[in-house]
Amino acid sequence: MVTHVSAGTPGDERGALLSFLEAERGGIRRALIGLTPEQATSRPSASELSLAGLLKHVAETEQAWIARAKGEPPAVERDESTWHECFALVGDESVESQLAYWEKVAAETEAFIRSVPSLDETFALPEAPWFPRERVSMRWVALHLIRETARHAGHADIIRESLDGATAFELVARAQEG
């Protein structure tokens, strides 16, 4: 299993935000414990979501938001025609490669959030109908990543329980064992 990033001291605001984000990442990582590649990519409901697809989506989304906050383009640009690709493994992508990528992204997120002089600093968003305003703060980005990851961690809980009945409590215990 992938090791997780140290969020530092949770007593300060940045540490608290990073700790909450890491806790939600853990929910998604734990949902993948002990699954075969076939189980991880399966869709056990009417939804198009799979655990592997959720993993790829949250890693890609986190990287994109931090890149935007840095004034850089995302590693992968998505639009309406390619949006579905961020929810499915393609080519030689695997759960293991996506977990490793997300670990790298998480480390970059922590380093960036810790490096900005103030969480009140803002940056301009690209024009898109789904963005809430023209400028957002670094604090907003951290909170948005927590919300996005938590939302998908909930999806992951439901998908995992649908696959084999494993609940979040059981998965936490398995993670602590190994």
Automatic annotation (TrEMBL):
Under the heading Pfam families, the entry gives:
MST (PF04978)
Q: Which domain of life is it from?
A: Bacteria
What is the protein's name according to its record? Mini-circle protein
